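pasting for ref. prot 1 ->
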Amino acid sequence: MSDTPPHALDPEGRLRLVLFDCDGVLIDSEAPAIRLIARRAAEHGAPLSFDEAMERHAGKALGHIQHELEAEYGVSLGLDWVARIQDDLVALMREEAEPVPGAPAMLEAMGPLGLPFRVGSNSSRAEMTAKFGRVGFTAHFPEDRVHSAREMGRPKPDPHVYLHAAALEGVSPSECVVVEDSDPGVQAAHDAGMACILLRPHGPMPPHDWPGLVHIRHLDELVPLLARVKRTQTS
């Protein structure tokens, strides 16, 4: 008999906390961010098209992207490249961030569900503040419920940001479900010992598969799914 507790979406489990990724789950910021990264990379002799950048670098931490670009193109982007990109992203998101389709209604519906939630992202806190302010999500995510893996120095796929958020909530990893859209994020959820709901409207599935991984195509599906889990676990 396994000593592993049932995951948070299992009928025998206990769902106590929802952990959202930010980009691609709450905020539709990936495309403008990738355009900025591709443009800045080209300025330093790393000619990268938007499609190439999206395929290779979406969801990755800026430091990882810099390392990969420098290794592939044999260029130096500079010691301050990440800091400069980060400053540019904050300014960009104040003007261009938009909610992922279905996100506003989903967040409003989370209240009656009675499940606490937090956000854990590879974005900086300043960037998330800009994004949430732009789209009107600030009230849903007070400062003490916003967690930056980048500022912890342990970006996804490292699971630390999710484990940290669970510890602050006072719940175990097996009682958490992560809502993610990227392969590094799914890996972080898996390695944290958490269930994961993958939001992916189309495209290939990540190279991960375990009993706690569930796929949805639109955020409209999320709250009904969580409500069913809660009903099953309390019946």
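and prot 2 ->
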Amino acid sequence: MIRAIIFDLDGTLVHTEILKAESYAQAIQILTKGSVSQKMVLDSFGKYVGLSRAGVVNGLFEEYKKPLSEHLDGLDSEAVQERIITSRLAIYHQMLNDKTLLSSHFCQYNLELLRSVHKDNFKTVVATMSHRFEADMVIEAMGIRGKLDIILTSIDIVQGKPHPEIYLKVKEMLKMEPEECLVIEDSLHGIKAGLAAGMNVFAVTNPLTRSEVHAANVLAPSFIIDEPKELIHRVYHFIEESR
């Protein structure tokens, strides 16, 4: 029987993965003086969705090492990655502070599910690889803090998704078995983390993650939702079936 619903944040409750991708793309274009275009970064960003900040930056650095090194001559790889982070965070925080922009990226149907399961007395959790500061900003903007029993971010764990640590920690805090937990994710890394924790997982895909999630073949088609308005019906049907 399902007793807890665990939501990823970025790309699941709010399309901040799109904003994150745009912030990295803008930063790298600026740092390389245009030799790497925003489109190049955006087109390749899907494979980094769901990773920790360090994982994203390391992947982007390896992918664009040559142009980054040429334009940041004299800096070692660690310093270049720090420069990417600093530049990108300045852009991303501006985006988060734009309430109109941020609210336009809320995932309406996924948030509707969260409010519904909270009302129906399921334990409701956010488990995200975002840093606490950014997660708090987004959660406050969505007005859902009072509907969450637990919020876990990257600061609460050692190993990021796709490692299952964050979901295993949720299980321990809830004092539940894995099969009593249902995870809602958007990215392949997050899906793998939930499955590795032994939990039930639904994927609600978005343009950044859809092709990779389908191609990976780690979930049965009935657990992959490409049309978010179907989410509530599909999740509640699964909950009833599992009673």
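The first helix runs from residue 16 to 31.
The longest strand covers residues 123-127.
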